[in-house]
C-alpha cells in the first residue's frame, strides 16, 4: 500500500505533515495484534493528531450512510478519534497524522516505550523523519524513497490539485473534487477547513491531512499559482 | 457499480468525486451514467459519498423549480441525495478492477489492504530487503489516468528479461501466468485499475540499470509511473549507498517512508521464508 509514499510536494511542503503508521506482517506478527494496534491509536490521541484511521473502516471523519438533510446547515467536521479506536476489528494498517514535528516526535517516543512489536513507519520529508528518529534515539531501520511521478505526466493536473489529491495515496480523492473545492474556496462558498473536510471523508485509510489541505487551499485562495 | 435510474436526480455531485472521471450526466435520459470501460470499481462513489434517502420525485421537482428560476443550489458536494449507487455483482475478470482499485478490499494473495504490498514497511520483521539490496516498487496509474494490465505487462516482461526477481507476496506477481517471463494472465490484460504495483529486488549495483530500464519502458506506455526505492539502513541508521545513486540520476529526494525498526516476530510458529521468486 503506497498510501502515503507519493504525496506531491517538496520537503518544505511537508512541514505540517507527519504520518505515523503501524502494521503487522502476515504470518510473522499478526497473531493477537488487535489490542496492540488499538493501543497504538490510543497512544496517539493525547498528542492531538489531525486524523486517525485504519485501512478497513476509514478515518476520524467519515461519510454517513444515512445523512440527515438538516446536516447541510450544520455539518459536523470534528474528528471522532474514539470511534476509530472502538471500530477497529482486525489486523490492518492503522495511522495517526500530525501537523507538527514536536507532536510526532513525542508520539514516537511513546510508541517506543510501549514496545508493541509492530512495524512502525514515519511518512514525511526525509529530514523530518530523521529528526523524529533522532529525538527518540532510534536508528532508522529501512527507508522507502519516493522518486515522484514519471511517464505520462502530461495527464496529471497542476501542483496544488496534486498536493491535495495525493494525500489519499489510493486515489480516492479525485482531481475533479480537489479542483472544485479550490474553486469553492476562491469563490468564498466554503472555508478552507470545510473544503478540507469533504476530501478527508473520501480517504478510506484516515491518512488524509486536513490541516495541510486547509493550508494549501488558503494559499490558493490568496492567489498562489496552481 | 451501477446507478439506479429510478433514484438518480442528476444532481451531478458524483461526477466530481469519481477518481476516473467515469461518471457523467447523460443528457438524453437526464441521469448520471457510468462509463463502464473507464470505471475501475474503486467504490469511491459508493463508499465516499454520504447518502440521504430523499424522495427522488420531490428532489427532481425542487431542482426543476430552482433551475427555472435560475437559482443556484449550494448543497454539500459530497452527498448523494437519494442513495442511488448500487454495487454490482462483479464476475471474473472485472472483479480484478475492484481488487486493485478499492483500498478497503484486501488482496487475497497477500492479505494486505490498499495496493496489497508490504514493501519495506515491515522490513524489520520480514528482512525482505537486506543491506546491499534495493527493493523497487513500480506503481502504474493514478486517479484520472489508471492503468491497464497490458501496459503493466510491458514493464514486467522487460524486467524479467533483465533477470530480476519479482516479489512473491505481491498481487501483480500472483496474476502472472509465467513469472519467469513476466507474462500476466491473458484474460485480464484489458482490465483497467486505478493503480497496481510491481515489486522487484536487485543488488545495489544494479539499481541504476533498473531505473534506466524503467525510463525506457515508461515511454512506451500511456500511464503515470511512480517509483519507490526501498533500502536497508546501516547500524547507525544511515543510508549513504543508494541515495547518491538516485541523486546522480537526477532525483531530488524529498519524501520517504521510514521504518524505525520497532517490529519483531511474535507469532509462535513464524519462520523466515524465501521472499523472492523468478530468475536471478
Describe this structure in words.
The complex is a heterodimer of chains A (226) and B (280). Chain A is α+β, with helices and mostly antiparallel strands and 226 residues long. Chain A has one domain. Chain A is built from eight helices and five strands; from the N terminus they run E-H-E-H-E-H-E-H-E-H-H-H-H. Chain A has helices at residues 34-44, 81-87, 101-114, 126-135, 159-165, 175-186, 192-202, 210-221; strands spanning 18-23, 51-54, 94-98, 119-125, 142-151. A four-stranded antiparallel β-sheet of chain A has the order 2-3-1-4. Helix content of chain B is 25%, strand content 21%. Chain B has helices at residues 13-17, 44-48, 56-68, 95-101, 123-126, 149-161, 171-174, 207-218, 242-248; strands at residues 2-3, 23-26, 31-34, 50-51, 79-80, 85-86, 133-140, 147-148, 165-167, 176-178, 183-184, 192-193, 196-203, 224-232, 255-259, 276-277. In chain B, helix 6 (149-161) runs antiparallel to helix 8. Chain B starts with a strand and ends with a strand. The model of chain B is unreliable at 273-280 (pLDDT under 50). Classes of the chains: A alpha+beta (226), B alpha+beta (280). At the A-B interface, helix 3, strand 4, helix 4, strand 5 and helix 6 of A face helix 1, helix 2, strand 4, helix 5 and strand 7 of B. Strand 5 of chain A pairs antiparallel with strand 14 of chain B.
Mean pLDDT of chain B: 92
Strand content of chain A: 5-15%
Q: Count the helices of chain A. How many?
A: 8
Which pair of chains has the greatest number of interface residues, and how are they split between the two chains?
A: A-B, 94 and 102 residues
SSE topology:
The complex is a heterodimer of chains A (226) and B (280).
Chain A: E1 18-23, H1 34-44, E2 51-54, H2 81-87, E3 94-98, H3 101-114, E4 119-125, H4 126-135, E5 142-151, H5 159-165, H6 175-186, H7 192-202, H8 210-221
Antiparallel strand pairs in A: 1-3, 1-4, 2-3
Helix pairs in contact in A: 3-4, 5-6, 6-7, 6-8, 7-8
Chain B: E1 2-3, H1 13-17, E2 23-26, E3 31-34, H2 44-48, E4 50-51, H3 56-68, E5 79-80, E6 85-86, H4 95-101, H5 123-126, E7 133-140, E8 147-148, H6 149-161, E9 165-167, H7 171-174, E10 176-178, E11 183-184, E12 192-193, E13 196-203, H8 207-218, E14 224-232, H9 242-248, E15 255-259, E16 276-277
Parallel strand pairs in B: 4-5
Antiparallel strand pairs in B: 1-6, 2-3, 7-13, 7-14, 8-12, 9-13, 9-16, 10-11
Amino acid at each position: 500500500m503506497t498510501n502515503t509514499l507519493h504525496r506531491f510536494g517538496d520537503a518544505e511542503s511537508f512541514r505540517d505533515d507527519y504520518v505515523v503508521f503501524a502494521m503487522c506482517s502476515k504470518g510473522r506478527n499478526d497473531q493477537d495484534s488487535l489490542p496492540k494496534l488499538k493501543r497504538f491509536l490510543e497512544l496517539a490521541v493525547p498528542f492531538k493528531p489531525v486524523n486517525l484511521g485504519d485501512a478497513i473502516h476509514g478515518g476520524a471523519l467519515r461519510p454517513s450512510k444515512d445523512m440527515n438533510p438538516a446536516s447541510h446547515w450544520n455539518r459536523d467536521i470534528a474528528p471522532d478519534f474514539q470511534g476509530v479506536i472502538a471500530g477497529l476489528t482486525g489486523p490492518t494498517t492503522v495511522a495517526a497524522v500530525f501537523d507538527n514535528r514536536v507532536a510526532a516526535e513525542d508520539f514516537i517516543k511513546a510508541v517506543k516505550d510501549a514496545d508493541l512489536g509492530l512495524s512502525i513507519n514515519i511518512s514525511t520529508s526525509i529530514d523530518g523523519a530523521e529528526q523524529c528518529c533522532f529525538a527518540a534515539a532510534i536508528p532508522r531501520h529501512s527507508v522507502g524513497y519516493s522518486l515522484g511521478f514519471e511517464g505520462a505526466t502530461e495527464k496529471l493536473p497542476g501542483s496544488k490539485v496534486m498536493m491535495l489529491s495525493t494525500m489519499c495515496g489510493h486515489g480516492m480523492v479525485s482531481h475533479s473534487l480537489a479542483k472544485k473545492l479550490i474553486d469553492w474556496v476562491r469563490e468564498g462558498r466554503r472555508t478552507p477547513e470545510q473544503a478540507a473536510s469533504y476530501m478527508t471523508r473520501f480517504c478510506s485509510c484516515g491518512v488524509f491531512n486536513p490541516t495541510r489541505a486547509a493550508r494549501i487551499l488558503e494559499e490558493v485562495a490568496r492567489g498562489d499559482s496552481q | 457499480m451501477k446507478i439506479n435510474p429510478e433514484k438518480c436526480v442528476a444532481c451531478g455531485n458524483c461526477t466530481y468525486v469519481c477518481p476516473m472521471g467515469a461518471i457523467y450526466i447523460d443528457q438524453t435520459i437526464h441521469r448520471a451514467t457510468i462509463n463502464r470501460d473507464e470505471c475501475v470499481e474503486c467504490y469511491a462513489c459508493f463508499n465516499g459519498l454520504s447518502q440521504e434517502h430523499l424522495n427522488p420525485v420531490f428532489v427532481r421537482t425542487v431542482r426543476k423549480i430552482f433551475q427555472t428560476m435560475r437559482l443556484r443550489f449550494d448543497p454539500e458536494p459530497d452527498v448523494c441525495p437519494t442513495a442511488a449507487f448500487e454495487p454490482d455483482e462483479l464476475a471474473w475478470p472485472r472483479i480484478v478492477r475492484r481488487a486493485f482499485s478499492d483500498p478497503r478490499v484486501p488482496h487475497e494473495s497477500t492479505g494486505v489492504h490498499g495496493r496489497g504490498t508490504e514493501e519495506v514497511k515491515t522490513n524489520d520483521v520480514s528482512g525482505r530487503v537486506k543491506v546491499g539490496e534495493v527493493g523497487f516498487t513500480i506503481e502504474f496509474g493514478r486517479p484520472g489516468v489508471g492503468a491497464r494490465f497490458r501496459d503493466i505487462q510491458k514493464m514486467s516482461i522487460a524486467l524479467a528479461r533483465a533477470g530480476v526477481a519479482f516479489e512473491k507476496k505481491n498481487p501483480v506477481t500472483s496474476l502472472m501466468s509465467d513469472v519467469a517471463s513476466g507474462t500476466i494472465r491473458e484474460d485480464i490484460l484489458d482490465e483497467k485499475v486505478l493503480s497496481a504495483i510491481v515489486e522487484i529486488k536487485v543488488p545495489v549495483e544494479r539499481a541504476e540499470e533498473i531505473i534506466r530500464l524503467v525510463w525506457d519502458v515508461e515511454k512506451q506506455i500511456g500511464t503515470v509511473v511512480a517509483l519507490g526505492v526501498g533500502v536497508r539502513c546501516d547500524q547507525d541508521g544511515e543510508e549513504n549507498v543508494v541515495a547518491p545513486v538516485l541523486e546522480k540520476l537526477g532525483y531530488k529526494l524529498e519524501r520517504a517512508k521510514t521504518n524505525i525498526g520497532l517490529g519483531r516476530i511474535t507469532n509462535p510458529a513464524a519462520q523466515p521464508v524465501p521472499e523472492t521468486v523468478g530468475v536471478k
